[in-house]
Every structure is written in C-alpha cells, then in structure tokens.
Amino acid sequence: MDDPPFLTGKLLLAMPGMGDPRFDHAVIAMCAHDEDGALGIGIGHHRSGIRLRALLSQLGLDPGEAPDLAIHHGGPVEPGRGFVLHSTDWGGQDTIGVPGVGALTGTIDVLRAIAEGTGPSRYIVALGYAGWGEGQLDEEMTRHGWFAVPASETLLFDTDADGRWQASFQEAGIDPRLLSNETGIA
C-alpha cells in the first residue's frame, strides 16, 4: 500500500506574518494532498453567530441529543458547506478515512446521526474548507507561511480551538512566542 501523500494527516499551522489575514493563527487539518491539489478543514477558529443546535435546526433536523457546540471556520472556500472531522467509530455516506486525523464526512447523514445520539464519539463540525490547486500548496510550503506538524487526537479533540495553534507548535517542540514575522537570509 502506498504511503499517504506528503501533508495528508498533518496539521498545517499558519506562521506569523504570512500575509493573508484569512489565515491568521490558522490550524488546518489536512485531509487530502496529492498531485491534483489539497483540501483541509480549519480547526483553529470558531464561526461567530452559529452553534451546532441552531445549524441542525436550519437544516430542518431536530437537534435532539446534539450538544450546543461552536462551529469551526473550516476555511474560505464554500463557506456555507459543512464538514465533520470525526473519530473512526462511525462511517456513513461518502465518509473518507484520513490517516492521522480520523475520518471526514461532508454529507448530512453524519449530522443526523449526531442529533440522534448515534454519531461518532468525537467530532468537529466546520463550515467551509481550505483548498489549493495543483502544486499550489507545494509551492507555498517553500516560502515563509506554513509549518506542518503531525496530527493527534489530543490536538484535534481535546484542545480548545483557541489554544490549538500554540499547542500544536509546543507539541512540535517550538515556543511560538519566539517565531518571527519576518524571513531572512542565512
């Protein structure tokens, strides 16, 4: 079996001063990365003004057993489209496995299962995603902008969104307070 592509299953962290305010302190769970492009789900910031139970109601689903969790800002692409990063103890229509992360589902059946109390045991709900075209992320990785770290269940499911960026650097042995906004020449 082939190894997963380079960044699949990693967390992509935005470096200070990367120049794109949409990704300030971003933490992106990389779900796919191959020769055709890359797709990740932002897990470092919550969306203001929307929570899970309200989202379920907007979709015509009875919130039932669903907790009133914050919704994550998954990224700037298709900001109205929903995704659920979750543990592998649940699978449904169009669920894909993501090595190092768990699974990703972008269909309403996972939300219905969460509302019914039969969904995955651990999950993050997000609206939108971060996407890169063919070779775009590979090129961005050569510049000062992104840093990749291994994903872990602790970072994904046990660390609050507001603390994921710092905790991810710290788990990699880096004190983020010492990071510079500027690049230099050695």
Number of strands: 10
Rg over CA atoms, rounded to whole Å, is 16 Å
Low-confidence stretches: none
**CATH topology term:** VC0467-like
Straight-line N-to-C gap: 40 Å
User: Could you give a short account of the major beta sheet?
Assistant: 10 strands, mixed
- Kindly give the count of domains: 1
Structural class: alpha+beta
Helix content: 10-25%
CATH class wording:
Alpha Beta
CATH superfamily: VC0467-like
CATH architectural label: 3-Layer(aba) Sandwich
Shape estimate: globular
Helices and strands, in N-to-C order? Answer: EEEEHEEEEHEHEHH
Count, helices: 5
Binned strand content:
25-35%
Output mean pLDDT. Answer: 92
Family: Belongs to the UPF0301 (AlgH) family.
Pfam families: DUF179
GO cellular component, one term: cytosol
Protein name: UPF0301 protein H9L12_04470
Topology, pairings included?
Elements: E1 10-14, E2 27-34, E3 37-42, E4 46-51, H1 52-58, E5 70-73, E6 77-86, E7 96-98, E8 102-105, H2 108-116, E9 123-132, H3 136-140, E10 146-150, H4 153-158, H5 161-171
Parallel strand pairs: 5-9
Antiparallel strand pairs: 1-2, 1-10, 2-3, 3-9, 4-5, 6-8, 6-9, 7-8
Structure description:
With 186 residues, the chain is an alpha+beta fold. It has a single domain (10-175), classed as 3-Layer(aba) Sandwich (VC0467-like). Helix content is 20%, strand content 33%. The chain contains five helices and ten strands. Strands 1, 2, 3, 4, 5, 6, 7, 8, 9 and 10 form a ten-stranded mixed sheet that branches. A hairpin with a 3-residue loop joins strand 7 (96-98) and strand 8 (102-105). The chain is globular, with a radius of gyration of 16 Å. The mean pLDDT is 92.
